Amino acid sequence: MSCSLLLYSDHMTKSIHQAYPPAARKLGRAFEKKMKEMIIEEPLSYNDKDTTMLLGIFSTNIADRFRDRRDALRKTYLGVDDPRFCKLNEYIRQKEENNPANSRCLVPYTFVIAGGGYSRPFDHGDDTPLTIHPNDIENEDCEDDCIYLNIRESMQRGKSATFFKFGAEVAKRYGIDYIAKVDDDTIVHPDLLLRFMHDDLPPTPLNVRMYGGNTWATREKQIFYGVGPFYFMSIDLADYVGNQLSSEDRLAMSHHNPIEDADMGVFVFSHERPIKYINLASFKFFIHSRTTKRDNGIELVWSTINRRYPTRPKALYPWAFLCNRWKYNMAT
To answer: How far is CA 212 from the centre of its chain?
Structure first.
């Protein structure tokens, strides 16, 4: 018998976990002081609607260490005692219950795994189902917080576009404003993410053509983009990339040697209308480092995150790295 119910049951019965205020999570005096010192802004709301964001955390079943990473993330930022964070299953259950008093989740998450096998393409472009039922997956993860895309596993070639195609469908049905792609060796600070959403991201329908991340650029395609550890876009752009562009369109636009995050930037900026880009380097609320890739590294970094974040680097754009003339002028 399968131990997963994800997206396939109309009777998901898991209750919302007990709500506690952020202070109950022992954030530390120094971090609480930093939060209080931030400029308090009016929320970018619409009809008193809170902004929502789906986190798609990219994982795989090819080795046990990736399952271990999923477990580590569940014990750290995904496991915070805050009802505003929940599994995608729970978010859907709350929306289908249609009781505003119990609809408290703002940041649903799911692990994103390609489960199609070698017979499937890297990018979903045919009429087959977009996802695979967990019962049909070998080595299924039993935590009911994974989706299995009906494509062949490849980080660089189509998984992101297929996920945003999936995300756009879920978002339109269940009222999600933004969709984020997150690496499984990235740690997100939940309180800072919620603060960013509250202060800087308007909900639907005010969130037109919005895209953001920590910024990098590509010489080959002459565009900048949000780098892979964490980037996000509004649901209209997710729909554009995943549905309005065909898999053939995306293949033709891609780099000669596919680069997941850079190719996604190319797809986004192929839109004929202006893109509203948010550079997260000025308010970085996630960590992606050599340490987070190591065994037990996620738990180690999580234990010190309140002392380290948010951060603001000196260089907000990588001009010196990308442009030799710029670097020469800086040196002289």
So the answer is: 11
Between CA 82 and CA 303 the distance in angstroms is: 18
Distance, in Å, from the CA atom of 281 to the CA atom of 294, rounded to the nearest integer, reads 24
pTM: 0.84
- The full DSSP string for 122-155 is SS--SSS-SB--GGG-TT--TTS-EEEESS---T
Q: What is the largest CA-CA distance in the chain?
A: 68
pLDDT digits 0-9 by tens, 265-296? 999 999 999 999 999 988 889 999 999 999 89
For β-strands 53-58 and 85-87, DSSP reports them as unpaired
**Counts for the chain of helices (H) and strands (E), in that order:** 13, 10
User: Per-residue pLDDT for 9 more than 50?
Assistant: no
Question: How far lies 171's CA from each of 92, 121, 201, 309, in Å?
Answer: 10, 24, 16, 29
Q: What pLDDT is stored for residue 326 in this prediction?
A: 61
First to last CA, the chain: 68
Lowest mean pLDDT: which of 120-134, 147-161, 207-221, 231-245? Answer: 120-134
Rounded distance between C-alpha atoms, residue 183 and residue 13, angstroms: 29
- Given a cut of 80, whether residue 5 has pLDDT beyond it is no
Q: Could you tell me which of 13, 4, 7, 6 has the C-alpha nearest to residue 97? A: 13
The answer to whether 284 and 309 have CB atoms below 8 angstroms apart is yes
Structural domains in the chain?
22-331 (3.90.550)
Is residue 179 a contact partner of residue 54, using CB atoms and an 8 Å limit?
Answer: yes
